[in-house]
Design a protein that fits this description.
Aspartate Aminotransferase, domain 1; alpha+beta; 141 residues; two-stranded antiparallel ribbon; globular
């Protein structure tokens, strides 16, 4: 895995070092599996972002209010309760993938997976690929 830089905060953080800090061995292996899956789906290397997010690619956003910034175009966080997969533009148009995925819950732009081995990884990869393509093609106001 390549060396990466925290997008928010100071200092360089290596993805492998970050993942080694995940205390639950099972969750750590799941996170390593997701790194490979996300790199394939996005064509981008993994980078550690602030807040414990492993991100892939980058997009720039600007709201009508004038607030703007940068964020990972795809990413996940190996949280204790669940793996959190970030879907920045939400789930509109991704219902077919969600229906075939396996056990999960969602919020506005987060997909929560309690166990990676309970979901269809091919479906997850397609969902990540499609979400990533939508984010990088999106024209922000």
């Amino acid at each position: 895995m390549a060396r990466t830089v925290h997008e928010q905060g100071e200092g360089a953080v290596d993805v492998a070092t970050f993942l080694a800090q995940v205390t639950d061995a099972h969750r750590r292996r799941e996170a390593q599996t997701l790194v490979t899956l996300f790199e394939r789906a996005t064509g981008q290397p993994a980078r550690v972002w602030g807040g414990g997010i492993v991100g892939f690619g980058r997009y720039h956003y600007r709201y009508a209010s004038g607030r703007e910034g940068g964020a990972a175009a795809a990413g996940f966080a190996p949280r204790r309760a669940a793996l959190t997969v970030y879907v920045p533009l939400g789930f509109d148009g991704l219902g077919t993938h969600l229906a075939a995925l396996g056990p999960h819950t969602t919020s506005v732009s987060c997909l929560y997976l309690k166990r990676l081995d309970a979901v269809d990884l091919d479906v997850l990869e397609h969902l990540v690929r499609e979400s990533y393509a939508r984010v990088v093609a999106h024209v922000w106001p």
